[in-house]
Specification:
The complex is a heterodimer of chains A (231) and B (299). By secondary structure, chain A is α/β, with parallel strands linked by helices. Chain A has 2 domains: 2-82 and 158-230, P-loop containing nucleotide triphosphate hydrolases (Rossmann fold, 3-Layer(aba) Sandwich), CATH 3.40.50; 92-157, no CATH class. Helix content of chain A is 34%, strand content 27%. Chain A is built from 8 helices and 10 strands. A 6-stranded mixed sheet of chain A has the order 6-7-8-3-9-10, sandwiched between helices. Chain A has a 4-stranded antiparallel sheet with strand order 2-1-4-5, with helices on one face. In chain A, β7, α6 and β8 (191-195) form a beta-alpha-beta unit. Chain A is globular. The mean pLDDT of chain A is 90. Chain B is α+β, with helices and mostly antiparallel strands. Helix content of chain B is 71%, strand content 8%. Chain B is built from 10 helices and 4 strands, in the order ααβαβααβαβαααα. In chain B, α1 (2-20) crosses α2, α2 (22-59) packs across α9 (215-251) and α9 (215-251) packs antiparallel against α10. The longest helix of chain B has 40 residues, at 160-199. The radius of gyration of chain B is 30 Å and the shape is elongated. The model of chain B has no long low-confidence stretch (mean pLDDT 83). The chains are: A alpha/beta (231), B alpha+beta (299). Chain A binds chain B through residues 51, 73-74, 76-78, 80-81, 85, 91-93, 95, 104-105, 107-112, 152, 156, and chain B through 1-6, 9, 20-21, 203-204, 206-215, 217, 298-299.
């Protein structure tokens, strides 16, 4: 069953640059999909449209039954509460502790304190940071900060996790640790879409891979076929 | 319940944020403090000028001279007739013998001339001294009194009173304008300072949006923060006004230079001024934050 269905999506920026041309794509529930391609191929625009930071000029983007393309700015929060987003630069609150950073995503909806505590501890345990709840982001390594960002993104139990180059700032070993965390989250049923430049990770993970080129899907590799096709 | 939790969290986060971003908060608080002190001074000045002008206006009296051969019944009737005129506030009857007594006590020359006058041979006239509730209608009231039978000449310092009234009107309008303009300038100054403070927290707003905060979820904590900054910023101006004005009042014994210029009594004046300053700080702080956050929200 499709969680995401994009039909005839086109995105042209005000500058006149077209980033996505007539894109058709569907992603099933529970999938782990890599989106790859050279710089400027439209990867970032594609995922920005998924979490509705950008709006397509035409076409439909259906996520879990919601047409994201038609979503008004003031209603974007309704989508964001159903998905999680992780970035290369972590986007953590530097003046808040690890616990507060994760709890923040629940507090803004008015979740009861006891529920917040249980959920935060659970996700921090999942990402291996249960022992660092009182630390501030600047007291953590890059990998640990990314784990906090992942914990924050999944604490609401989203159906979809969007990752925009989450390993871009990390060394190889730490990157693999992050991938293990993402893999574990995916095993629990969360659909993951990850944009990356790291070919090694893509080859190693053996997941579905969508190769973009100049705003179009150049290739859509089924699970486990990418490594063989490129070698 | 959920709403209560959201509001409680907003208040807690606002306090936390004020202290976590202390240097920025201090910039906003200082700006609020300085501008509110200026507002406080202008409020004290303008209210005192207003009070002074009103006191002077209150002292302006219409004197209606009654006919020499008037009967006491007619005198009583005239009083009732004057009371029916609009804008008449108080009426005081002054017997011609009382007037003579007052004049004699003020000068020995008068005393020598008037001491043997009796009610029958006194050339003075009984008078009604009328005070009006609005000095702008004094001419109209005087004219109506003049038209009453057995009322002779009516005097109220024609020309000068109107001039005085118009000067006071200008002064009062200038004072109101000055306070109003200052409040607007204050609002802009404070709101811009808070805007700069919030600019540095653009990232925080971005993260809030990212994790699914609605515009209201984002605005509320920032507005509470603005409110807290406004209250903290108003503390010093309130203390300055309260202690400063009381000290000034006591030092000058309630009057400035002469008994003619009386200062407003500190109570309840200082409480009202403090209330205005706190409310102003709160409102301006909240509006400043609201305007600043709005800029970073996609609405």
């Amino acid at each position: 069953m499709d969680l995401i269905r994009m039909s005839n999506v086109k995105k042209t920026y005000k500058t006149g640059v077209t980033a996505i041309y007539d894109l058709n794509l569907s992603i099933e529930k529970g999938d782990f999909v890599f989106i790859i391609g050279s710089t400027g191929c439209g990867k970032s625009t594609l995922i920005k449209m998924l979490y509705r930071e950008e709006k397509p000029n035409s076409g439909k983007i259906i996520i879990g039954g919601m047409n994201v393309a038609k979503l008004r700015n003031r209603k974007v929060y309704k989508l964001r509460r159903k998905i999680g987003v992780v970035f290369q630069d972590f986007k953590l609150l530097n003046r808040a502790t690890v616990y507060e950073n994760v709890a923040f995503a629940l507090e803004i909806f008015g979740t009861p304190k006891s529920e917040i505590h249980a959920k935060v501890i659970k996700v921090l345990d999942l990402v291996g940071l249960k022992g660092k709840i009182k630390n501030y982001p600047n007291q953590l390594s890059g990998g640990e900060q990314q784990r906090v960002a992942i914990a924050r993104a999944i604490v609401n139990g989203p159906k979809l996790l969007i990752c925009d180059e989450p390993t871009g700032n990390l060394d190889e070993k730490t990157s693999m640790e992050i991938m293990e965390v993402l893999e574990a989250i995916n095993r629990m049923g969360t659909t993951i879409i990850m944009v990356t430049h790291d070919r090694k990770i893509v080859e190693l993970m053996q997941k579905r891979v969508i190769l973009l080129d100049a705003g179009r899907v150049l290739k859509d590799y089924a699970k486990g076929t990418y490594k063989n096709a490129t070698n | 319940m959920r709403l209560i939790r959201i509001i409680t969290r907003s208040i807690r986060d606002s306090f936390r944020s004020v202290f976590r971003n202390f240097s920025l908060s201090l910039a906003s608080i200082s700006c609020i403090t300085i501008t509110l002190i200026v507002v406080a001074i202008s409020i004290v000045l303008s209210y005192n000028v207003d009070n002074f002008s009103r006191n002077v206006e209150k002292d302006v009296t219409i004197v209606a001279f009654l006919d020499v051969d008037i009967t006491s019944e007619r005198i009583k009737q005239i009083e009732d007739e004057i009371y029916t005129i609009d804008y008449v506030e108080t009426i005081e009857f002054k017997d011609k013998m009382d007037i003579a007594k007052d004049m004699m006590s003020s000068s020995d020359v008068y005393k020598n001339i008037m001491q043997n006058w009796t009610r029958e041979d006194s050339p003075l006239q009984d008078t009604y001294q009328v005070k009006v509730s609005d000095i702008n209608y004094i001419g109209k009231v005087a004219k109506e009194i003049e038209s009453i039978e057995n009322v002779g000449v009516v005097k109220y310092g024609e020309g000068m009173v109107e001039q005085l009234a118009s000067i006071f009107k200008i002064i009062r309008n200038v004072c109101i304008g000055a306070v109003g303009a200052l409040i607007v300038v204050t609002a802009f100054l404070i709101s811009n300072t808070i805007k700069i403070t919030i600019f540095s927290r653009k990232r925080e707003i971005e993260i809030m949006r990212l994790v699914g905060a609605s515009n209201m979820n984002i605005k509320i904590p920032f507005m509470f923060e603005g409110l807290i900054l406004g209250i903290i910023g108003a503390i010093l101006p309130v203390l300055t006004t309260t202690y400063g004005y009381v000290t000034l009042y006591q030092h000058f014994n309630g009057q400035l230079f002469s008994p003619f210029i009386r200062l407003i009594k500190p109570e309840p004046f200082i409480y009202w001024t403090s209330f205005i300053l706190i409310v102003l700080g709160m409102i301006v702080g909240m509006i400043g934050s609201y305007r600043a956050v709005r800029k970073y929200l996609k609405i």
